[in-house]
Design brief:
Elements (H helix, E strand, L loop, with lengths): L5 H17 L3 E9 L7 E10 L5 E7 L3 E12 L2 E6 L4 E3 L4 E4 L4 E8 L9 E8 L3 E10 L16
Parallel strand pairs: 1-10
Antiparallel strand pairs: 1-2, 2-7, 2-8, 3-6, 3-9, 4-5, 4-8, 9-10
The protein binds copper (II) ion (CU).
Amino acid sequence: MKANPLPSLALVLATSLAAASAAPSIQLTAAWIQSPMPGATETAGYVRITNGADSDDRLLSVSSRWAGHVDMHEMVTEDGMMGMRPLIYGVKVPAGGAVDFSPQALHLMLVNPRQKLVAGRSSVPLQFHFQKAGTIAVDVPVQNVAPAATDAPQLEHHQ
Ligand SMILES: [Cu+2]
């Protein structure tokens, strides 16, 4: 009689399922909001989004009860002029990859903040709405400068 292959197969299956459920999906790190210029009605926010899942996801929108609205922008150069363009279809976060919202690249735009944003003292509640991962809420500190490089390691991105 041949050995029943099922027990070992079941073990492999259980192991891979455990690994899949333990894999982090969307993670938000190194988030910060630029303290606004005096009198400004909008300011930029930055974050690193990592997708540990094995399928692509998409950041559809960002919202905050502290702002009139939150837009996603990318920097573009047209006719030699730097400008910003709204990312109306959101941003794809590739499987096993990362997307950086960082100065000179993608950024969030907090429009009409409803609170005074003070560097080192305020943190702004933001909600990131993903197609698959759902809504992830983060309290984002207001700062004058980006977090220290050691806090935000520059990994490979935009592959
Ligand atoms: Cu912008």
